[in-house]
Design goal:
This protein has about 325 residues and is an all-alpha fold. Helix content is about 65%, strand content about 0%. The chain contains 19 helices and no strands. The protein starts with 12 loop residues before the first helix and ends with a helix.
Amino acid sequence: RAWPCQCQQTEPWEVGCMEYFNQGQALLGAGAGRIPGAAPQATPGQVVVNPGRPPGADEVYHLVQDLRVSEHRENALLELSKRRESLTDLAPILWHSFGTIVALIQEIVCIYPQLSQPPTLTAPASNRVCNSLALLQCVASHPETRPLFLKAHIPLLLYPFLNTVSKDRPFEYLRLTSLGVIGALVKVDDAEVINFLLQTEIIPLCLRIMETGSELSKTVATFIVQKLLLDDMGLTYICQTAERFYAVSSVLAKMVTTLQQNPSIRLLKHVIRCYLRLSDNPRAREALRQCLPECLQTDLTLQCLPEPIANCLREDTVTKRWLAQLLQNLNLR
């Protein structure tokens, strides 16, 4: 039985995350308090890593050991997070080394009190915990440590960050980095990941960010919802009740409206892909015929959208093909 209509007419995400992560390093400045041109100094027992040079195995192990020493942890977090992309075995080292994951979790939970009203989260505190989250993203991305990461329910520790609403930069940076960890989980098609996330509040959290977050946060949150939808288990879950379907479709419709004022082809691409996947479900397809935003139904050049988006779509053959398939699935062309 079809649902009654309740809708009102109204580039890769990882690159964006990395751009924002690099911007976030500027919250403190990589060389704060350091004399320009001077060699980095270490306190006794602390490892010095020369900027721009990948650390050797001994340096990596010493930096990981420094994570367990509170006096050295901040520097170790910074150095390891900056070099995590070039250290292919960093995730297993982090997971299997004694006390390291506990230290990263400690960094996360210790700022929970700063999220309470009135929020007191500072830029340095946000920067430090985001370096911890960047290392956890490595763990979430690695095939050996991903199942262990899920079994320990570590993603749930990030949900308080996703649940914040402040638009101040430290909070936005914290939300985006947390989304990056979840995005790393769903990037690889893994039924265990989808099953875990569907048992949590990740969809409502992502929907709120899709509606109110910055463009980058919206893009990553929409990517996560898209990956959940692309899995049969996720599509069935979202389309299981009218309430879930309309919660998703109404936010997508609001995003299309917002995109008419603030164009973003990267974000529009994820939105159209979500609509296309929803149209694979018979009941959702029937509902979408009634509530798909009118500007998406007009024609394949999207003349109702701002000219920048229309121009991009003329060149973006993949998104244009998705839109054509969506309209065909809904018998709207």
